[in-house]
């Protein structure tokens, strides 16, 4: 298990380029299974979860070629379906939650799929019902071996259908869309997720020959086609990393420019951080954040305490609530952070409390943060990263703290942020990786 040794109290300065979006990459990479032709993808982040998915696709028989630092070509013209029956496939797929999205393409193109229960962050219950509800509406037969925790899906004759999803699941919507693009007839998905990453997937599929309308809304209509062709696709910059850098700049009093942020695709993320009192300037598609000694949390119009809660897009993404929480510890003012979607994602606050933060964990979903306005800096401690987003939040806390911190289990951070230590050290941080 690797660790970070972080020297706190240093101000950063310079420009940083966000990586390609992790959550988009997991969808787009699964979509290469929908065609036998070559698919070229740019801006692929070099992170653990993405690399494991590329390795899984390679084991399935997909021809993978790296053509540049962040560019690959994929060609799924000889997929080994027998590999899906092996224990090696089940083991590798179960270690990566994003692997569930290979089911839609497998059903669409080959008529069946098999997968063990996916893993991923331990942030609470993340049920699979939406995925399988959609597959069943399209005519697939679903079987679950509860003893071995293996899903078997037979979808030899998928037919278009109307469906109202019980939740606007991003991965669920992506999976159903990929299954429906080659189903016979018309599919209508209401209460569909409409995140920018899902829009990117739909746009890519349309370039491949799919017929999807309603992109960007929660009502998607898909006319099934018999075959898809190859295409070229470029990932969006990772909005979670962009939000993390905004919070980091404020906490460390740093002057940072986030390059090519594609601001128009960030939704309410910049405005939410502005409500935390963080100043920023939009310079074209770059975000400039000046060094700030103080930043003050707004209240609601009636003077009551600000609440920041997660919501489905275009609401505030749950992946950035931990960043908001840690950033608030050194602000002036109070904020209630309400994590609605996952009941275990706030359990890292005990580490922040040990560092000196004033936080009341109201229940598994809510925490009240009382900003200290830098009067009482956080103190460096030894801690462990419980998941990707909490891990980066703890890294930000350590960078702003007095003294030195040790963060264990940084493999969690590596799953979502590429070369994060090297990139931040280039701006003036002091982060040492200890193996």
TrEMBL record:
Which Pfam family, just one, is annotated for this protein?
A: EPSP_synthase
State which pathway it belongs to: Cell wall biogenesis; peptidoglycan biosynthesis
Q: Which residues form the active site?
A: 121 (proton donor)
* GO CC annotation terms, alphabetical: cytoplasm
Binding-site list for phosphoenolpyruvate: 22-23
Domain Enolpyruvate transferase, chain residue ranges per copy: 7-422
UniProt cross-references to InterPro entries, sorted A to Z: Enolpyruvate_Tfrase_dom, Enolpyruvate_Tfrase_sf, MurA_subfamily, RNA3'P_cycl/enolpyr_Trfase_a/b, UDP_GlcNAc_COvinyl_MurA
Q: Any idea where this protein resides?
A: Cytoplasm
Enumerate the UniProt keywords alphabetically.
Cell cycle, Cell division, Cell shape, Cell wall biogenesis/degradation, Cytoplasm, Peptidoglycan synthesis, Transferase
Its EC number(s): 2.5.1.7
Residues the record lists as binding UDP-N-acetyl-alpha-D-glucosamine: 97, 319, 341
Q: Which GO terms describe its biological process?
A: cell division; cell wall organization; peptidoglycan biosynthetic process; regulation of cell shape; UDP-N-acetylgalactosamine biosynthetic process
Q: Name one GO molecular function term.
A: UDP-N-acetylglucosamine 1-carboxyvinyltransferase activity
HAMAP family for the chain? MurA (MF_00111)
Which PANTHER family does this entry report, sorted A to Z?
UDP-N-ACETYLGLUCOSAMINE 1-CARBOXYVINYLTRANSFERASE
Give the UniProt family note: Belongs to the EPSP synthase family. MurA subfamily.
Function (record text): Cell wall formation. Adds enolpyruvyl to UDP-N-acetylglucosamine.
> What protein am I looking at?
UDP-N-acetylglucosamine 1-carboxyvinyltransferase
Organism this protein belongs to: Cecembia calidifontis
Lineage start: Bacteria, Pseudomonadati, Bacteroidota, Cytophagia, Cytophagales
